[in-house]
Amino acid sequence: MNELFWVMQGYEIYIWPSYVLTLLSLGLLFVHSTKQLQKAKKLLKQLSKTKN
Amino acid sequence: MFDWLANPNRFNRITEKIQPCIFLIAIITLVSGLYFSLFDSPKDYQQGDAVRIMYVHVPSAWLASILYFSLAISCVFYLVWKHPLADLVSSSIAPIGALFSALTLVTGSLWGKPMWGTWWVWDARLTSMLVLFFFYLGYILLSNAFERKIDGSKTASVLAIVGLINLPIVKFSVDWWHTLHQPASIIKIGGPSIDDKMLLPLILMIFALSFFSLYMIILNVKTKLIEKKCEALLLKSNLEEISKAG
Q: Shortest CA distance to B125 belongs to which of B66, B168, B71?
């Protein structure tokens, strides 16, 4: 991969932030939603235990 | 379909099986889409490498519109047939749709600056996309604004259905008005007008974001179903305590 690839004809300051922002947002959404699911599962387990 | 899936146990059983496949397809299409977008697609003869922003901007815009349509349909199911799962689906779609419309606006600005010389213009396409983003925000805010959850869901659903009117405006704004934004180049009479080598990464990225969204919606619905179960258990134990005290 040569230096020209990263420079992208001088458009790198527009191209890379677009990709980084998109992938970062998808990643954060995934992590946040997975954590929420785990949290809900844990709460349900605790409540079921208390009930029993 | 909604009737059949409205049973939470059935929904969990089915999604348990298909969710890993959806995730796998999303990852494969995302990785290959990114490869073709960045390494194996030609430069545009006018825009040069800046055209690569299209591979994240256009799929985000499509998803923002498709998800809004799904949100509104789900709201119709909720209001007309009062399906509780429909409300969970709508509230699961909304944040994902809002994220994609925000990404569309931001990546659009990042594409607009080098091509048009400005970050933003009050152009019909850009403005209608901003309105779409506001409809998503409105839905999220309204559904959480009431003390009784059901009131919030109903009001937000009405807003989401009203917002459907904005979708054809987003799509056809470039044909109805003279805009700075370029006209449609994929879904148009006579077929796509972009090169196949550019169409491939674009389609791969659209698939990637679509499968990712589907995965996230299922994940969010599952979370909300468990939260509902927790609420029911808490309510039951509270009622038991009250009856014991009485």
A: B168
